[in-house]
């Protein structure tokens, strides 16, 4: 029976979320793990979960099952570092030897300084070390200290480029412990897990509430025909970079806490400053875009404990993957809407990142999500409305008048723009008379001076983009009208 207190919007969101998860998790995909759970959350706190398979043995996975989240742990580590920075107890620009005097790093045989910030955003020059580090969660703190004292070799000069270093992040954890005099797990629990109510998130199974259902890890080498049990590694110096355990509900709350920094009323401002959360979610180290994502992404980079993507359609996306022998995890959220996705599976062959990316993109497409919560300049909105009216009425773009910057029509004369528009409407038909207000047709707003929106025509859609220049009276400096989805200039 329908819940009479449940809003239509919440019901629609659940329908879209379940449809997206069902599409992304067909039988052949689910069979790559013994079990798992996906979940979609929105900015209002609604969470829709889709569990599948077994958590362990024959015990079904459900929305409350705890999974190892692997490198998603790094976002909690980064938050702890930045909280200490905000309190004046840690300087991100300082060389790490200020906090770990024994640490020695070498580039081409010469000792060099590396800063805390460089470690935290993966531009320290330390080499990528996933295969080795995946088996080091239980490495003792003394052993990490001994490695650092013996000297760690860089494969790039400090600050010169992106390389994902788990060892570098483990050193960040050691810095937190040196500054606070407390284990990193205590710092994270006290500062974030407890105040945010993340009761089913911890670094060890022993720290979870009694009777918490915990998944076990498995490995497959034949596409899921046979699974081998993968024992839990104990918690050690590398636990801060990959050892945490959590539920989709708790990670949904963590994503919402971070994403709320983009809103006018950020959640829990006393836990971590909203401006600091925005800093976490900003790219500091450019990273290469995977070939299969090149059509979707304008750029990608690493922030503080998070990957920052600039999606061509939806704007900023924040994410982090996790992978360990026996485990695959991924969280990602859309900055503008707060919509987030979490996917956990108890097999490292599952590919949680691919599934989460597909689910989030599907939900954002189905909800026609915009790219940012930004108020446009009034002049930008007025110029867009005039352009929209001229397109829909068949008027000449020469009538842009006072909105046009001095370069606009000399760059592309009005008669050329009119002819190009006529060619488009010849192909796709006249604009439909009945259209939603322009404010509801905005598809992208990277900043207050730029707008992109759609115009529905009889046989297809047009996409309009404008950019204003910030003169004392802002003026329209560029205008593009093209086929929706076109990437041509």
TrEMBL record:
- Tell me which PANTHER family the record gives: BETA-LACTAMASE-RELATED DOMAIN-CONTAINING PROTEIN (PTHR46825:SF9), D-ALANYL-D-ALANINE-CARBOXYPEPTIDASE/ENDOPEPTIDASE AMPH (PTHR46825)
Name this protein carries in UniProt: Beta-lactamase family protein
Q: Cite the Pfam families for this sequence.
A: Beta-lactamase
Signal peptide residues on this chain, from the entry's feature table: none
**Beta-lactamase-related domain location, by residue?**
22-353
């Amino acid at each position: 029976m329908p819940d009479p207190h449940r809003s239509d919007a919440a019901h629609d969101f659940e329908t879209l979320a379940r449809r997206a998860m069902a599409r992304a998790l067909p039988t052949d995909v689910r069979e790559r793990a013994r079990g798992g759970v996906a979940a979609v959350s929105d900015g209002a706190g609604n969470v829709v979960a889709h569990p599948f398979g077994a958590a362990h043995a024959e015990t079904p996975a459900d929305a409350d099952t705890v999974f190892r989240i692997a490198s998603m742990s790094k976002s909690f580590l980064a938050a702890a570092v930045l909280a200490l920075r905000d309190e004046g107890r840690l300087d991100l620009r300082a060389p790490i030897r200020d906090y770990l005097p024994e640490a020695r790093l070498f580039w081409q045989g010469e000792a060099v300084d590396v800063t805390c910030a460089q470690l935290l955003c993966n531009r320290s020059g330390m080499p990528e070390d996933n295969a080795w580090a995946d088996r080091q969660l239980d490495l003792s703190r003394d052993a990490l200290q001994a490695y650092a004292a013996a000297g760690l070799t860089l494969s790039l000069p400090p600050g010169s480029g992106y390389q994902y270093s788990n060892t570098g992040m483990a050193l960040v954890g050691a810095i937190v412990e040196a500054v606070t005099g407390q284990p990193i797990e205590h710092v994270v629990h006290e500062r974030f897990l407890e105040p945010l109510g993340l009761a089913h998130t911890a670094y060890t199974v022993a720290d979870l509430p009694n009777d918490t259902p915990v998944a076990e890890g498995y490995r497959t080498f034949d596409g899921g025909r046979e699974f081998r049990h993968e024992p839990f590694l104990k918690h050690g110096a590398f636990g801060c970079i990959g050892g945490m355990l959590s539920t989709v509900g708790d990670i949904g709350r963590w994503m919402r806490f971070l994403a709320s920094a983009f809103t006018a009323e950020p959640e829990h401002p006393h836990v971590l400053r909203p401006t600091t959360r925005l800093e976490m979610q900003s790219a500091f180290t450019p990273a290469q875009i995977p070939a299969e994502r090149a059509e979707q992404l304008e750029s990608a980079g690493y922030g503080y404990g998070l990957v920052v993507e600039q999606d061509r359609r939806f704007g900023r996306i924040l994410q982090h993957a996790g992978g360990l022998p026996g485990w695959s995890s991924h969280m990602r959220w859309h900055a503008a809407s707060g919509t987030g996705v979490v996917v956990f599976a108890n097999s490292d062959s599952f590919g949680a990142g691919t599934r989460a990316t597909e689910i989030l993109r599907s939900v954002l497409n189905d909800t026609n999500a915009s790219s940012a919560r930004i108020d446009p300049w009034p002049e930008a909105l007025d110029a867009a409305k005039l352009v929209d009216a001229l397109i829909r009425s068949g008027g000449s773009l020469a009538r842009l008048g006072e909105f046009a910057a001095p370069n606009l029509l000399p760059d592309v004369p009005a008669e050329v723009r009119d002819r190009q528009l006529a060619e488009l409407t010849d192909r796709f038909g006249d604009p439909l008379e009945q259209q939603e207000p322009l404010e509801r047709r905005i598809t992208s707003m990277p900043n207050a001076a730029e707008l992109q929106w759609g115009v529905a025509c009889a046989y297809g859609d047009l996409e309009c983009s404008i950019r204003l220049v910030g003169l004392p009276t802002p003026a329209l400096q560029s205008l593009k009208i093209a086929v929706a989805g076109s990437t041509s200039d």
